[in-house]
Each structure stands twice: as structure tokens, then as C-alpha cells.
Design brief:
Blueprint (H helix, E strand, L loop, with lengths): L4 E10 L2 E11 L4 E5 L6 H9 L6 E6 L2 E3 L3 H5 L2 E4 L11 H10 L5 H14 L15 H11 L7 E5 L7 H16 L3 E5 L3 H7 L2 E6 L2 E6 L1 H8 L3 E6 L3 H8 L5 E5 L2 E6 L3 H7 L6 E6 L2 H9 L6
Parallel strand pairs: 3-8, 3-9, 6-7, 7-8
Antiparallel strand pairs: 1-2, 1-4, 4-5, 9-10, 11-13, 11-14, 12-13
Length: 303
């Protein structure tokens, strides 16, 4: 199979509002593919369409060799899903949550139970099989949700914002586990608002806004194609006056709140000027995926 997931001209409307507008995606086996976008961009709807959970108005989906929605059930038997919000059953123990979930795939209890120690080790929950869900921290619950999605040994894993709400330690542990999955040949498709997460994990990604794909490629390729290589962030007393001067020193200058962003291939003129402005605070750094994201989708707050 050359393609794990492929969509063509996918469209979905709710009333007069089109939330997915002709989306074309192609995810190769064994890669981690990221789907990025502001709130309301259409990411979660696109995932639901790919899984056959809702019907498209037009277009096509082929998931693990199966046409969706016609053969969505067969496709989902080979898929794991990590939802945006944990939906573990609080009445069951850690192990019971895994067993019950495995039954949905027609797996026998003894086969599920045989795999539980390995799943709990993977999730950093070894020794917690008998624990009640209420006793777990937020990070533990998120890791258990990831382990649960692997009960049926899926070829492709859908993850909707897998590390939202986690502290840095828990986030880094999940990143390490996801890298392990790709090294094993699993295919991952994730949505995330953490640009660092996408830059660290994703082989390729697509940026989505207002229902459309506006850019696709590897993180480094997108940074190279869409943004200047260097950034200087400036804030402090008098930053507004200095911003006017900055427009003569850098080809692109933007303001977000009380911070000025100067983008350029060479920022030495900006830095030289800032060294004489002792009241201003500044940070010089290489451009990253977040800069690309904000340039393409804008800095306005989305609800």
C-alpha cells in the first residue's frame, strides 16, 4: 500500500457554512503527518470525515485501502483514535478500560490481557493496572488514552491534540512514545496547536485555514519557503516609537500586543540599533514553524 490515507476534493457544509472546502491530503505509510490550523479551521471535521463518522457532501476518502464511508467499519478496525478529550470510563480500573475497549474490536479477553503489561509499560503506567481512573493525574489519563488506542495494534493512529493540557514532562514523554511508534512503522496523523510539537514530530504537515489547505510540506521546507530566516522580538518602554525606526532596518515588521517582530535574512542592523536602546528588551532567534503559521493564518484571535 503506497498511501495510508488519501482524500480528494473533500467538502462538508453545515447549513450555509462550508467548513471543509475541497481538501486534498495524502499520507504515506510510516510517516507522522500533522494537520495544523486555528480554532474553527476544519481540522476535527476533516478527521471525522476520514474516519467515516460523518458523511462528506462530496469528494472521496480512501483509508488503509478502503473506501470511506462505504467500508468505514473495515477501515476503522485497523485504526486507533486518541480523541481531543479523554473519555475513559471512571467506573473501571486502568486494565478494565483496556479490556472493554478491546472488545469493541472483537478481541478475546485473554488476548487483550496478554498485551496489557506491554501497553502499560509503553504509557509509563507499569504497576497501575488495578488503579481507578480517578486516582490518575491528567498526564497519566492522557497516556492511558494513547495506550488504549493501541489495543487493536492499529496501522494508523489518529490523534486530535494529543498533548493539550499536559505539563512539559508529560508532553515530552508522549513525544518520545510517538517517535517510538513511527520507528515501528506505524502511521500517525495528528492535529495540534503546539507548533514545537509539529516541528519535532511531523515528517510532513498541512496548514489549514477556513476549511482549506493553504500550505503543505516538511516543517523545514515550509519555514524556508514562507518566512525570513531570522527574527528579533522587541518589547519595553518606547517600543512603538522604535517600531517606526525598525521599518527602515528590516524588510518585514509586525506588532502583536506590546511586542514588535522584525523578520529578515540578516538582522545585524536591527541588533546594532537595539544595542543603543537600553530601555528595550529583545530576543534574537531563528524563524520557526509558529512564525510560518502566524504569517499564513494571521495573528487575530480565533474563538
Amino acid at each position: 500500500m503506497n498511501v495510508a490515507l488519501e482524500t480528494h476534493a473533500l467538502r462538508k457544509s453545515y447549513g450555509a457554512h462550508e467548513v471543509v472546502c475541497g481538501v486534498d491530503l495524502k499520507v504515506a505509510p510510516g510517516e507522522c503527518f500533522g494537520l495544523l490550523g486555528p480554532n474553527g479551521a476544519g481540522k476535527t471535521t476533516t478527521l471525522k470525515l476520514c474516519l467515516g463518522l460523518i458523511d462528506a457532501d462530496s469528494g472521496s476518502v480512501r483509508l488503509l485501502g478502503h473506501e470511506v464511508p462505504a467500508r468505514a467499519r473495515e477501515a476503522r478496525a485497523q485504526v486507533g483514535v486518541v480523541p481531543q478529550f479523554d473519555n475513559l470510563d471512571p467506573d473501571f480500573t486502568v486494565a478494565e478500560n483496556l479490556v472493554v475497549y478491546g472488545r469493541y474490536f472483537g478481541l478475546r479477553d485473554r488476548d487483550i490481557e496478554a498485551g496489557i503489561p506491554q501497553l502499560l509499560e509503553f504509557a509509563g503506567l507499569a504497576g497501575r493496572a488495578a488503579a481507578k481512573i480517578q486516582t490518575l493525574s491528567g498526564g497519566m489519563k492522557r497516556r492511558l488514552t494513547l495506550a488504549r488506542a493501541l489495543v487493536n495494534r492499529p496501522a494508523l493512529l489518529f490523534m486530535d491534540e494529543p498533548t493539550t493540557g499536559l505539563d512539559p514532562q508529560a508532553r515530552h514523554l508522549i513525544w518520545e512514545r510517538l517517535r517510538r511508534l513511527t520507528q515501528e512503522g506505524r502511521t500517525l496523523l495528528l492535529t495540534t496547536h503546539f507548533m514545537e510539537e509539529a516541528e519535532r514530530l511531523c515528517t510532513r504537515l498541512a496548514i489549514m485555514d477556513r476549511g482549506r489547505i493553504i500550505a503543505q510540506g516538511s516543517p523545514r521546507a515550509l519555514i524556508s519557503a514562507h518566512i525570513e530566516s531570522q527574527v528579533v522580538e522587541v518589547h519595553g518602554p518606547g517600543f512603538e516609537r522604535w517600531m517606526e525606526r525598525a521599518r527602515d532596518l528590516a524588510p518585514r515588521v509586525e506588532r502583536a500586543g506590546e511586542t514588535v517582530f522584525c523578520y529578515a535574512e540578516g538582522v545585524e542592523p536591527v541588533l546594532a540599533e537595539l544595542r543603543r536602546q537600553h530601555e528595550l528588551v529583545y530576543l534574537h532567534r531563528p524563524a520557526n514553524l509558529e512564525d510560518v503559521f502566524l504569517k499564513l493564518t494571521g495573528r487575530d484571535l480565533r474563538d
